[in-house]
Amino acid sequence: MNEYILLGNWEYKLTLDDKFSTMAEENYSEDKKMFDDWLKMYEEIRSGKSSAFLDEDVFLDIIEYLDETQSVKKAAEATEIALTYYPFSSSLLVKKADYQILDRKFDEALITLEHAEAFDNHDVNNTILKIDAYLGLQKEEDAFQEMENALRKFEGEECVDMLLELTDVFDDYEIFEKVFDCLKLILDIEPNNEEALYKICFWTDFTGRNEESITIHHKIIDAYPYNELAWFNLGAAYQGLKLYEKAVDAYKYAVAINEKFDYAYRNMGDAFMRLRKYKEAIDVLKKSLELSRPESVIYEAIGYCYHKMNNGEHARYYYRKAVHLSPTESKLYYKIALTYMDEMQWQQALKSIDTALTFNQTSYEYELVKGECLMNMEEYAEAIHVFGVVVKHRPKSMTGWAYLIRCLYYAEDYVSAAEQSLNAYENTGDKPLFLFYHAFALFATGDMEDALIYLESALHQSPRLFKKVLELNPFILQNHRVVDLLTQFRKISKKQ
C-alpha cells in the first residue's frame, strides 16, 4: 500500500482501502453468521434437542463467548458439555479446573489438572492453575515447588508469559515478595520486557527491595544503556533509599533518552524538593505539565516550592490552579492560608482556613491555624473557644495547650492562663514548658513568690526552654530576682 503514497496516487490508494474495508466487513459478517449458527447448535445440544457435533475449537470459542458476555456459570456448563464429546482434551480440562478454582473447589481442580497433564504435560496454563489451587488451599510450599519445577520445564517467551501470569496470582493471595521475585526472573530472561519494567517499579516501592532493584537495573543498563525505563526504575530505587542526588542523575539519563518522559520529570521534581532545590524542582515540574494532562498534585507541588522560596504570590497562584482541578481538597485552602499567614494577612488567611474547614470539619490542625489567625486579629474570645475545642479533643497535644495558654495570656486572663498551664502539665505528661507558662502567668497576677518557685522548678527540668517562653513577657528580665535566678542556673550550666 505504501508504494501508492510514494507515487502520489492518493485517490487510487483510497479506492483500494475502501475495497479492502468492504472485504473485511463481508468476512466479519460471514464469521458472525457462522458463529451464530454454532451458538444455535450448542443451545440445541444443551437442551437435548440435538446430538449435533461441534469441533473442539468451536466449543472453546463458545465457552470464551459465554464467559465474556453472559456468566461464568454458563461457561462452566458449556465446558462440561464439551468434555462429554472430548474427554481427553487437555484444553477443556484446564478450562474446567479454572472454573473449579473460581468456585473455590481447589482439591477438585488439582485432580482435574492431573488428568489434563496426562494428555499434555507441557501446558503453561496447567502450571499457573496448579499454583493458584495450592495457594487457595494455603499450601504455599507446594505452590513454590510447582513454580520451581516449571522454571526448569519452560524457557524463553513461554516462561516469561507464565511468570507474568503468576505475578497476578501471587498478588491476589497477597504474597507480594513472590510478585517481585517473578518480575526479577522475567528481567533475567528478557531485560527489555516493558510490562515487567513497568510493574517492578511499583513493587520495588511496595516491598522496599530497593537495593535489589538497583542491582537489577544496573545490570540491564550495562547491557542496554539506552533503556529509559531501566534508568527511571534505577532513579526510583535510589529515591526509595533517600539517595536523592543519585536519583536525579538517573532521571536525567531517562529524559536524555526520551525527552518526553513526563513521569521522569515528575519524579525528578520530587527528588529536587527533597534536596530543597526548589527552583530546579519548579523547572522540571513545569516540564512535566507541558508533557501530560494537568494534575492537581503537580500544581500543588509547584505551589509548595514557591512557598518555600518565600514567594507567597506565586505559591497562591499554583495552589489556586490545583484548587480549580480539585475544588473540595481542603489541604489546598489550608496551604493558601499558610502563605497569607507568612505575610501577616490574617483576614485573608482566616477566609481560606474557613473554606478548608467546610470540606474537613474534623481537622484540628486547621482549627489551630484558625485560632492563630483570630488571636493575631485580637479576636481573643473566639480564638480561646477554638483552642478550647482543640484541647478537648486532643488533650495530650502540647501544641493545642500552648496556643490556648498564650491566647489567654495575651487576652490578659492571667488567672485562667495559670490554671490551664497546670492542666496542660498534667495532661501532656509533665512537660516543663507548662511550668514556665504557669510561672509567667503567676508573675502577671503579682504572685511573685509562687512564680519564682515554679520558674526554678522549670529551669531545673529544661533551662533552654526559657528563651521560647520569654516572648510572652520580655520585661520579666527587668525583675532582679528573676535575673539572679537565671544567673545562678548559668553558673550551674557552665560547671556541668
Descriptive overview:
With 496 residues, the chain is mainly α. Among the domains are: 293-393, Tetratricopeptide repeat domain (Serine Threonine Protein Phosphatase 5, Tetratricopeptide repeat, Alpha Horseshoe); 395-496, Serine Threonine Protein Phosphatase 5, Tetratricopeptide repeat (Alpha Horseshoe), CATH 1.25.40. Helix content is 79%, strand content 0%. The chain has 28 helices and no strands. It has helices spanning 2-7, 10-46, 56-69, 72-85, 90-102, 106-119, 124-136, 140-153, 156-172, 176-189, 194-207, 210-223, 228-240, 244-257, 262-274, 278-291, 296-308, 312-325, 330-342, 346-359, 364-376, 380-393, 398-410, 414-427, 433-445, 448-461, 466-469, 480-495. Helix 22 packs antiparallel against helix 23. It is elongated, with a radius of gyration of 35 Å. The model is unreliable at 1-24 (pLDDT under 50).
